[in-house]
Amino acid sequence: MHIVTHLHPSIALALLVKDIKLASSEHIKSHQLFPLFNDWQVGYGGFTYAYKDKDRLINYVKNQEKHHHEKPFREELIELLKEHEIEFDEKYLL
């Protein structure tokens, strides 16, 4: 799942992600939207971009299903980590 949002400095990203995961899990399970859904993965990634990139990011999210048919999630994640100069160990990536 991809989300483009503006986050007020007083809100911790970890708490926002926790709230989204809890609320969406409850909704998915109570409405039986995905019978095989158990829970979200343990981790998440968050990246910052310039406000001027907002429209490009929104278009990307709108077309993420098509995009992920062209490039596997793992490959995209590695590219994002490298682009943002974030050190990582591939053994911890899905």
How large is the count of helical segments?
4
Calculate Rg over CA atoms.
15 Å
Mean pLDDT: 90
Largest sheet: none
Which regions are unreliable across 5 or more consecutive residues at pLDDT < 50?
A: none
Structure explained in plain terms:
This protein is mainly alpha-helical and 94 residues long. Helix content is 48%, strand content 0%. It has 4 helices and no strands. The longest helix has 18 residues, at 13-30. It is globular, with a radius of gyration of 15 Å. The mean pLDDT is 90.
What is the strand and helix layout of this fold?
Elements: H1 13-30, H2 54-62, H3 64-70, H4 73-83
Please summarize what this structure is:
This protein has 4 helices and no strands. It has helices at residues 13-30, 54-62, 64-70, 73-83.
Give keywords:
48% helix; 94 residues; mainly alpha; globular
